[in-house]
Amino acid sequence: MDAAATTDFVHVYEPGIDTARPPLLMLHGTGGDERDLLGLGRMVAAGASLLSPRGKVLEGAMPRFFRRLSEGVFDEDDLRRRTHELADFVASVRERHGLAAPVAVGFSNGANIAASLLLLRPEALAGAALLRAMSPFRTPPQADLAGKRVLILSGAMDPIVRADDAERLAQTLSGNGASVDHRVLPAGHGLSQPDIGLLKAWLDQA
Questions:
Q1: Is position 75 annotated as part of the catalytic site?
Q2: 2-204 has which CATH code?
Q3: Among 54, 115, 123, 175, whose Cα sits 20 to 30 Å from the Cα of 148?
């Protein structure tokens, strides 16, 4: 395991033993850190390399990947800047370790920046699993997402992400060429056992 603050992000890199699996880019939610989703990554993609950075924006004492102005209202200028910063970080770690393009697994705030990565820097990712994601942009940029697989897992009782917003994200990504599988589960904002099962099955098909 490589725990480091190089390339400007505190992060953990766990080299994998299954070279057939794409590496996973684990992106935590608000208040999480670089270790939050490692257990999930090991559970759903045993043997895959895991790269897990800590968001550099603090909301109070809680790490995030980009600023928000209020609940559900993003600072889109900061989001764009942080998205490019994260994409550059991923590129540098890929070069350092000889990694293929990763599949992002993001939860909440981490899912939102993963969606932004797909739209602004699609070359950074092979695909993405977006858990409780919102549309990151009021007016989404165009991107060539042909050949990229995307899983969106939404909660029917999520008090934070509106159903129409998650559906808009799914339509944006599919409209740009991604192969999108959007599932709505009987859950809130937190992850449930069905989320884990669906995520594992989806990753096994990669």
A1: no
A2: 3.40.50.1820
A3: 54
Residue 108 annotated as catalytic:
yes
Q: 116, 158, 182, 195: which is the annotated catalytic residue? A: 158
CA distances 30 to 96, 116, 126, 159, Å, are 28, 16, 24, 15
Amino acid at 95: E
* Rounded Cα gap, residues 129 and 149, in angstroms: 8
Q: Which residues of the chain are under the pLDDT cut of 70?
A: 1-7
Question: What is the 3 state secondary structure string of 8-27?
Answer: HCCEEEECCCCCCCCCEEEE
- Taking the CA atoms of the chain, what radius of gyration do you get in angstroms? 15
Instruction: Measure the CA–CA gap between 169 and 135, rounded to whole angstroms.
Output: 5
Q: How much is the pTM?
A: 0.95
The strand pairing partners of 70, in sequence order, are: 73
Q: How much is the pLDDT for 7?
A: 53
Residue ranges per structural domain of the chain? 2-204
165 a catalytic residue: no
Distance CA 206, CA 201 (A): 9
